[in-house]
Amino acid sequence: MKKSDFAQLVADRVHPPSKAESLLRFHENPPGRGVSPERRALAVWISALPQADRANVLHLMDDAIQSAIFGLLVLLDEGEVYRDGEVVGEVRLDYRAATGEVTRLNAPEGEDLHDLYSHALKNRTAD
């Protein structure tokens, strides 16, 4: 697996185009018997949103999802862990194929995962 394959996998599986809508539907109809009053109130609010406001909420949710994933990938790209200004460790993201071959996905060489993820999202919207 190449870095770009991993970034595409994240875009496709962790942040599919339908993610914000499915999260909004989840909050509109929260599952379970022990739904808190706060969640019930949120569900009522979501259900009452005019279509234009719902579209804006979905846009904000999609931005939040993208930002969270992007931030995590930046952390993985940096690789080194600092404490009090000194390197104290290294974060490694390795892919181990069934053949035993290991590929470091956050190697400092090549494009960063966060950039590849952004490219994967842009390519998706261009299709």
- The total count of helices amounts to 5
Strand content: 5-15%
Shape: elongated
Runs in which pLDDT lies below 50 for 5 or more consecutive residues are none
What kind of sheet is the major sheet?
2 strands, antiparallel
Helix content: 55-70%
Tell me the number of strands: 4
Quickly describe the structure:
By secondary structure, the protein is mostly helical. 59% of the residues lie in helices and 12% in strands.
Describe this structure in words.
- The strands form 2 sheets. Strands 1-2 form a two-stranded antiparallel sheet.
- The protein is elongated and about 50 Å long.
- Helices cover 59% and strands 12% of the residues.
- The chain has helices at 3-14, 19-28, 37-47, 51-78, 113-126, and strands at residues 80-83, 86-90, 94-96, 102-104.
- Helix 1 crosses helix 5 (113-126) and helix 2 crosses helix 4 (51-78).
- The chain is mostly helical.
- The mean pLDDT is 93.
- The protein is built from 5 helices and 4 strands.
- The protein starts with a helix and ends with a helix.
- A hairpin with a 2-residue loop joins strand 1 and strand 2.
